């Protein structure tokens, strides 16, 4: 592994600067024993960094697993895209390590350039190919990204691009294709119909992936498995094991958490934010009549 071998992706390009949006001070954070997040795809426009920053500012944990595809090196090779919000995500993660959160980073296929550092630690972040997590209730969970099963799932390889907003592109293309067709006097032809067929295949793909991963976990004698990769959060009992997927921060914006008693839960962060806003609005509404009442009394 010489330095030339890493020339296509230079880690020296990364200067983790002070955050553009500092962490809020003294806000109450929900505490969990463990948090798993993956498929953040930093370095792409699809990454929902703002929502992830909100998540990081409202939760804390003893352990944090970064389950792959954190930085999208594939895309960064083509075009360097690194807005301040993406820097803020990395800064917050490194800050947590400093505060004492035990962080394990398991690179995925989009950030496979970090796999060469397996076994090493940087800034308190341990880089591993896979990990065994022991839950508070004594279960052993195999933690891995999930692209290890791509070979098995080769027939559905196109889904590896699920984060690329291929569907949106397809829909735009649909408009153009049909504008041209109409000018040529040809009838409407639905590209979206083709895409929908693919989506139906996607549902089958997800089910198959989950079963393949669970099967492998069972063969390795663990009680469960935590992975990412397919951008579909899930908690499901499959055969003799518990299958967990922490989802992604491109579309779903989800995290998997372990409570202090070992109970596992998927957090849907967009919904959490909506709930918080609604609660704040209700509180403000209650405050207004009370103030008005005070005025009347005076
Ligand atoms: Mn992946």
UniProtKB/TrEMBL annotation:
GO terms for biological process: lipid A biosynthetic process. One of its GO terms (molecular function) is metal ion binding. Keywords: Cell inner membrane, Cell membrane, Manganese, Membrane, Metal-binding. GO terms for cellular component: membrane. Pfam families: Metallophos. Residues 33-232 form the Calcineurin-like phosphoesterase domain. SUPFAM superfamilies: Metallo-dependent phosphatases. InterPro entries: Calcineurin-like_PHP, LpxH-like, Metallo-depent_PP-like. This is UDP-2,3-diacylglucosamine diphosphatase. It comes from Sphingomonas changnyeongensis. The lineage of its organism: Bacteria, Pseudomonadati, Pseudomonadota, Alphaproteobacteria, Sphingomonadales.
């Amino acid at each position: 592994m010489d330095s030339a071998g890493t020339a296509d992706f230079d880690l020296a390009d990364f200067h983790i600067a002070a955050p553009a949006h500092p962490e809020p001070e003294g806000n109450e954070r929900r505490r969990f024993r463990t948090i798993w997040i993956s498929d953040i795809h930093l370095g792409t426009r699809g990454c929902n960094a703002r929502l992830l920053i909100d998540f990081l500012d409202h939760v804390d944990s003893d352990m944090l697993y970064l389950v792959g595809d954190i930085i999208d090196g594939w895309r960064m090779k083509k075009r360097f895209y690194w807005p301040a919000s993406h820097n803020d995500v990395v800064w917050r993660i490194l800050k947590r390590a400093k505060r004492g959160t035990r962080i394990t980073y398991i690179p995925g296929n989009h950030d496979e350039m970090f796999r060469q550092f397996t076994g090493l630690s940087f800034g308190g972040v341990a880089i591993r190919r896979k990990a065994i997590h022991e839950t508070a209730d004594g279960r052993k969970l195999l933690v891995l990204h999930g692209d290890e099963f791509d070979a098995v799932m080769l027939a559905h390889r196109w889904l590896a691009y699920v984060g690329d907003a291929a569907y949106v592109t397809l829909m735009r293309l649909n408009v153009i294709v049909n504008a041209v067709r109409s000018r040529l006097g040809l009838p409407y032809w639905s590209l979206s119909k083709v895409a929908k067929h693919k989506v139906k295949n996607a549902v089958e793909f997800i089910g198959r992936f989950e079963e393949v991963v669970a099967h492998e976990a069972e063969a390795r004698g663990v009680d469960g498995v935590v992975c990412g990769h397919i951008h579909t959060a899930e908690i499901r009992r499959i055969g003799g094991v518990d299958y967990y997927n922490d989802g992604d921060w491109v579309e779903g914006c989800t995290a998997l958490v372990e409570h202090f008693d070992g109970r596992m839960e998927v957090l849907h962060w967009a919904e959490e934010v909506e709930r918080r806003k609604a609660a704040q609005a209700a509180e403000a509404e209650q405050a207004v009549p009370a103030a008005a009442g005070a005025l009347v009394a005076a």
